[in-house]
Every structure is written in structure tokens, then in C-alpha cells.
């Protein structure tokens, strides 16, 4: 019979002896264990029914069990024994707060160790992790622990020392599969310690030690205490090596953060009612979650049927807890709701018998900077509810009043019930559009956009070492056209990347991993790697290594399409990009593509819109692109730039942001990298005058990384020489910047000054070892009589392009002769102006008399079908135009608006 007995948890409250061999007694259930504080090896001398408070610092005598309360105290021992019992633990420790518990645990680490931690952790946990990262030299990786596979690439048997998990997380109630993660870690890095913050659940609802965790801690300030009348933290552990000797017990004694006798007493008293409190609290929480869900709010609670982690949670936990959160769609509205409740106390923390309401982003999680909050998908409008033991009807009643008063719900007379006010989301959208100073247009799917490339005029290479670089836009542009499709597909056609074309069924895209970005939210600093991976392994899985450039461009395009999508509106269209810029020649072709893709997607998703055009004052056709300069409002440009930067991150990993800024804002700017003595940042050069430049593509391919590394090595080998060169280049950038912005300087003086600076900068670049015989040939050709022009390499050098300044009075025929000579040398010359307009958008509606552009619906059938099959007239012509004709044709279509 005894073989049939269930396995006993590790605790020593004895199950009474079997009454008879045929009627065995079962081990005590949790609430019995909670209420029964008994330690057979530590009986009270007077038989007191509650553990006395040994309010003493020292104990008399030598060799007794206790000598000093920092090291040990009978009240605390009772508490620790009790906690071990209810946590299935061999060891338990009580310290002064939850954070003190984490601090003790983190002291198990040493410099060079790595932690893998969740990305939705309690704010104070993040603060302490940041501290040990910056002060102790421990690397912290934050990952989305809802997907155990995201941890795998980070596990390193020699470095991974700890994994820190919360489940459910606070406040988004995301679920981590503690059992699976613990198993994965044990298999791959057996020495790593799996730590779980179990505060949200308490040992009543979840005992992670039973699922393979090594160390568990709780902020006992919460459910264990239950009354918000003390601060405490508890640590439980089954590993003797971690618990004893020089580890947890040692640290607590050494730093002296053990729980005081009086707080130990209070905590012990609180724990006795843990199970009853929790039962009531979670039953009410479930009612509140169901109520909010039925109103139409996005509710995070593992007890709801649509919670993504529900199944895992049910496997590892015994209940859903009493914390939930919901989104209203608007931060201001959330503030009104929180301020409108009476019974729900506005307070940080949770776990108390009284119900609490809070907005994590302005309260408990305010210590996390907004960008990181956004990166971790924490909505600014999120409201957290921590349900107490009051009567659930009163709690629901109070919440309903607050929702009505705030205007979040209203009575739907037809259904005779309250429903969420639908305008909530639309209000937020129109407010955000309002912020951009725009009207939300109807918009259709046909938009024509363009953005310029850039040249670095001064400071390339030196910029890597903290010297200021001057970059300016060139009048060679990337063009992007969106054409509607009617078949639920999205397609991309990158004409300049081996004429790449691919189409995808919109509903088959990896929507399940998309964390949409609300209209007034910025993209997090870090890319969503899960989404990038899902694109690589899903829609782009068939692309070959040879198609890596097309793959990168497709990821950038689809990534933005997915995260920018609003609600269920998923526009179906084709995007064709073409460039008049040479690709991969250091002229910012990728940034101009990024700006085009970003602006097209923002327009299609109606996140930006362009202001209506003023009525034309003349019937003459406007050909000059600069006519529309500054017609695109700065707020729109900035939004496009933010997203172009996201695309650049996808394409390049760690871009400086210079190229996309030039592509969007045009003109010229000075850029200094952060991390050096000089003031860092990016500054537009106001009043920059446009110059004519000849760009000559040597067509020699470059390895930018190798060239940059070469300069770095030279800096190590010949520090003084390189320091001298860097200083000289800084002076050139400073002088150029002053001259370019000086309104008083006569044009010919300015041109002469720039010409000299170009020559000087090139000489320094030669000394840095980044020129190439082809570039030197271009330089000597352009510098020889009768041309006598100044030329320098631009960008990484070692090939790529050279730039030659063309004075205003340079004769046409001489220029033609020069171009012929360059072509004869097998180089590609491009005549362009530098410092012109940034992003351009062609209104999709006809505005000028002679435009060749017809809006959708008034189409003449295309001679060649567009890849999308949408049958709109502009696309086939766009694709068929020769590169040399492209700009002029685009200009002729109508009035472009420019930044
Ligand atoms: N862990 C979680 C999940 C928490 O919510 C908190 C506090 O809010 C802590 C740890 C820190 O606990 P304490 O405030 O007791 O230091």
C-alpha cells in the first residue's frame, strides 16, 4: 500500500501515522501547511501558539545556537523553516526586501559572467541588472522568454552563469515555460543557475523549484505578507552548494541584510492566511479580467481563453493569480480611469488585501527609460490591476464608474449594455496625425516617392576616430512607387538588385510574432530580432546566399510593413524601387532606398499624410524639383527619418544615421560620433549652398570593413602620424563647415576655399592608405590641364567614387571633353549637384495641367502588366524608363513636394 502513496514534498510537518494499513493518511494540503507554523526541532519552551519576537541583537553565552541577530535569530529561523516547508525547498532565507534577495543572488556572479534575463522584468530588477552590468562587468542579455528557443543561441557553457526569469511577468503577464527553459539550460550549461522571481504567484500558486529552477526568490512584501505593512524578501533553494558555505548564507551574514525579528514575526503571521487570501483574490481577478475583456479591451491575464501562454501556465502553476493589466489605446484616457476609481487605491506594488490600480509606465516601471520600455513592448497606456479581498461586486462597480466617467465605455442602447467606445483608438490616431500638423487624407495605394544619395565631402575614415565629417545630398536619387494590387498579396521589385521580384500572400506573413507599433510610438532602439528571424525562416527562406542584398532589402521592407500595420487594415500593393545612383559605390544608395520604403509605407498605412497643395497660380508646368522644397512639414520628415533609420539598421547593423538623415533632410550636415572628446551629434549646415560636382565611379569594388580596419591598425602602428592626420582632417571639416554656413562669403572665394580643402583632405586620405590607383588616375585626369579641378575620394575609398568640384563658370565644352575622357578610361561619370532637396513625395492626385500621371481609376491599360497585376498606368512606364531619363520623367509627372 505504501508504494501507492504520493511523493511527499520536501518539508517536515509530519503527516500523521496511517490509521491502518488500508486507510493511509494523505500529506497535508497547502493551506494546512500555511496555517500550521511548527518546527519540531525548535519547540517553544512555554508552548506559545504564535512564534515569539526575539527582539534582541545579541545572545549570551558561548557555543549556543545563536550569538548575534545578523547571523541568526530564532524568530527568523522559524520563518525560514516555514517558507522552506511551503516552497518545496531544502533552504530558505529571509532578507530585508525583494531587491535585497536579488542582490544576494546576483553576488554569486563574477566579472565576465553572462546572464540571460527576461525582457519584461520588474523595473527594479532591471535597475540592479544595469548596475551589475556597468559596475561588475557582467553581460546581461534580455530576451523574450515567452519563446524558450530565443535563449538557445545565447547559452554559452563557459560564460552563461545565470538565467533570470519571471512568470507571469509584471505587468504584461507573459508566460515563460520555466520547466522547458530549466531543462534546456541544464543540458547546455549545467553550471548555470536558473533563478526565478516568483513574486507574482507566491509558493501557493507556483513552486519553480519543482520545475528545475535552482534558486527562487519572492518579494515577500507582496502576497506572502499580504497586508503592505512590511518589506521583505525570501530566497529558497535546493542546492547545498549555492545555499551554504561561501554563497547565499555567507553573503547575508556578511552584508547584514537579513530580516529583522519583528518583520519576521509579521511575515510569519501573513503567510498563515496566504492560501485563503489568494483564493479570494484570484477568483475576483478572474471576474474583473472577464468583465474588461467582454467590454472589448485588450486584457492580459493568463486565465483568459485567448491568453497566448495559457496552456504552459496551466502546466506549471496552480492558479492564475490576482494581477492583470489592460490597454485602453490612449495614455490620457488611462490616466483618467486610474484617477477616477475610489476603491482601487492608486499605488505601486501588489499582493495586498486591498485592491490597487496603477499605470506601470509612469509608476513602477518609470525607472526604465521610455525607449527601452517601447523596445520591450510595454504600452504607455497600460493599466495594472491588483485585485484584493474586497467584495468583487464593489470592485467591478467602482471600476465601471471610472470607465464611464473617463469616457472609455458607453451604454449601447441596442444591446442594453456598456461597450468600449470605439473612437478611443481613432482619437489616438487623429491626435498623433494632428501632432504632425496634418490632415489624414483618404489616401490610396499609389504613391511616388524619392530620396537623394549622399557624398561625404570631408572627414571620411577620420569620422570613425571622432573627427567631424561633412556629408551632403546629391541630386541622384532612389525612386519608389507603390501600385495597388487586388489579390491579397504584397510584392517588392528591386530593379537595381538583379531585377529582384518577389511576392508574398499577406495573410501568410509572420503576423504571430509582430509587435505592432502604435501610431504615436517610436520604434524601439533595438530591432525585433524575433521578427527578423521569422522573416528569414518564413517568407524569405528560399532566397539564396547570392540574393543576400535582395534579402536584406526585403526584410527591411516587410519588417516595416508588418510593424506599421494598424489594426486589421493590411494594404495589398507592389513596391518598385529604382535608383539613378550607382549601387554600392559609397553614395548612400541604401539610405535613399530606406527613406523611400519608409515614406511609402508610412503613407500607405496612413501614419503620415501630406498637406493639400495650394491651388496653382500659374498654368505652367513645374519642372524644378526645388520648387516644392520645404513643402513637407518637419514632423513628417522626422517620422520618415526615424523609420528610414530602422531600415538602415536592418541593412547595415549599426549605421551612424548620417546617410538616412541626408536622404530625408537633404542639404548638408556635420556629424561627430559619440564616445570621443569632441561634442558628438548631427547638425544641419544652415544656408548650405548647392554646388555642382562630378562623381566618378571607379567601378572598383571595395571592402569597407577592411579599409576601416586598415586605418585602425595604422593608428596602432604609427600613433603620432595618424593623430597628426586626424587633427588636420578635423581642421579641414571645421573650416569647411564655417565657410559653407557663412552668408557673407562671396561665392568664388567659397569655391576656391572648398577646392583647396578637397585637395588637402585627399592627400591625408592617401597618407592613411585608403586610395586606389583607379582613384589616383581619376584625380590626375581631372587635375590636369585644361581642367585643373580638385578631386578627392569619397567614402571608404579603395575604389568606389571620386568627387570633383565643378566651378560655376566651368565651360560646357570643357566639361564635355572631360566626361569623354573619363568614359574612355572605363569609368562612369555622373554630373550632379550637391546639397539639394531631401525626401520628395508626388501627390497621388493630379494637380498640374500637363501631368502624365493619372490617378487610379482613370487608367489606360498598361502595355506591360505590372508585377502586381494591379494594372495601373505609372508602373510599367516607371520600370521601362532609361536611367538617364528617370529624373526628368519623374519631375514631369506633377508637382513634387520636398523636405
Ligand atoms: N520582483 C517583483 C516582481 C516585484 O514586483 C517587486 C516589487 O515590486 C520586486 C521584485 C522587488 O521587491 P521589493 O520591493 O520587496 O524589494
From TrEMBL:
It comes from Armillaria gallica (Bulbous honey fungus). Keywords: Amino-acid biosynthesis, ATP-binding, Cytoplasm, Kinase, Lipid biosynthesis, Lipid metabolism, Lyase, Magnesium, Metal-binding, Methionine biosynthesis, Nucleotide-binding, Pyridoxal phosphate, Steroid biosynthesis, Steroid metabolism, Sterol biosynthesis, Sterol metabolism, Transferase. NCBIfam families: cysta_beta_ly_E, mevalon_kin. Belongs to the GHMP kinase family. Mevalonate kinase subfamily. Belongs to the trans-sulfuration enzymes family. It catalyses: (R)-mevalonate + ATP = (R)-5-phosphomevalonate + ADP + H(+); an S-substituted L-cysteine + H2O = a thiol + pyruvate + NH4(+); L,L-cystathionine + H2O = L-homocysteine + pyruvate + NH4(+). This is Cystathionine beta-lyase. Its cofactor is pyridoxal 5'-phosphate. InterPro entries: Cys/Met-Metab_PyrdxlP-dep_enz, Cys_b_lyase_euk, Cys_met_metab_PP, GHMP_kinase_C_sf, GHMP_kinase_N_dom, GHMP_knse_ATP-bd_CS, Mev_gal_kin, PyrdxlP-dep_Trfase. Its main location: cytoplasm. GO terms for biological process: 'de novo' L-methionine biosynthetic process; isopentenyl diphosphate biosynthetic process, mevalonate pathway; sterol biosynthetic process; transsulfuration. The keyword RNA-binding does not apply. GO terms for cellular component: cytoplasm. The lineage of its organism: Eukaryota, Fungi, Dikarya, Basidiomycota, Agaricomycotina. Residues 567-605 form the GHMP kinase N-terminal domain. It is found in: Cytoplasm.
